[in-house]
Amino acid sequence: MISYFSKTERDEAFYETYLLPRLPRRILDAHAHFNLPEHLVNVGPERIASDWALQAGFQMSMEEAQVYVKALFPQQEYHFTGFGFPIAEADLQANNAYVAQLVKAKKLDFGLMMSHPQWDAKELRDQLRAGGFVGLKPYPDLISKSKGAEKSIFSFLPKSHIAAAYEMDKCILLHLPRAGRLADKDNVRELKEILREFPGIKLILAHLGRCFNPRYFEEAMVLLGEDIHKMWFDTAAVLNPKVHQLAFSSLAKERIFFGLDLPIFLWHGKRMWTEDTYSNLCREALPWKQNIEDEKAQSEYVFFVYEQLNNLLDTMEALYFSSDEKAGFFEGNARTFFERCTKGGKK
What we know:
Blueprint: H1 9-19, E1 26-33, H2 45-49, H3 52-56, H4 62-72, E2 77-83, H5 92-104, E3 110-114, H6 121-131, E4 135-137, H7 153-156, H8 159-167, E5 171-174, H9 185-197, E6 202-205, H10 207-210, H11 214-224, E7 232-234, H12 241-250, E8 256-257, E9 269-273, E10 278-282, H13 295-299, H14 304-318, H15 323-343
Helix pairs in contact: 1-14, 6-8, 12-14
């Protein structure tokens, strides 16, 4: 368990007042990381110190996840789509085997397989099939440990891997590289190339294409044009209500999935934005903590994920979501999508 995780009376009151009356009974989280300590023995202190997300938390078994969501959402029936923690030092094969085991035991609704760019395409297909995975989870860290590295999508997601997933009718959950995020012209060019060469591919962009600030999404809509409507998106780690509003009002609602990116966001805090970037504020004594606000303000923080949910629910109400649209976002959209990927089969 993450040592700092704890629920306060303020959290309880916030959940009862702002979340419980508006949340559906059933939730399917489309973006969560599962692993065991033995998968991470090569992740050393220097590596953890280099990344604020790793410092927040990068280990979570299914048993731990159930403790977290029971505390966070005691009145919800909470389900997961999960995958490992795709960092260079992790034991990807063992972690994939653990996720496959959870899927087989029906403890995990859907599982994605982490892929390494050096793997042979035939080996990739065999592992996808044997593990019962619904798709691939490639990640830039496997070729560069620098966040937002100026690397090609194809450097960590080879076209042979895309072709394998495409032929098997599996999905790809893609974390974009480059500082420009979804609005980066090279990312746009490569995404268009994928969509052109693999028409109808089931491509999900994690974190709304890493558009944590609205300007990236606004610019991406112009650059991508109609192609933005050929992909799917999850909302993991996106808190900015202006980004939520842009996504929900611009994209087909059934192409957006709910996600929290656990176990990274289990602390108390909120997010502040500039035009280009953001700052995470927290109450816990995490190494990257910034005392932007005083102790009294910090004492009033609730769970970071509660802030995200409250912003999402406020946006849905402002856009007059129907009960079916809300249920779709929190469960139905992702479930329908991943069930189609479960069957697979050559196109």
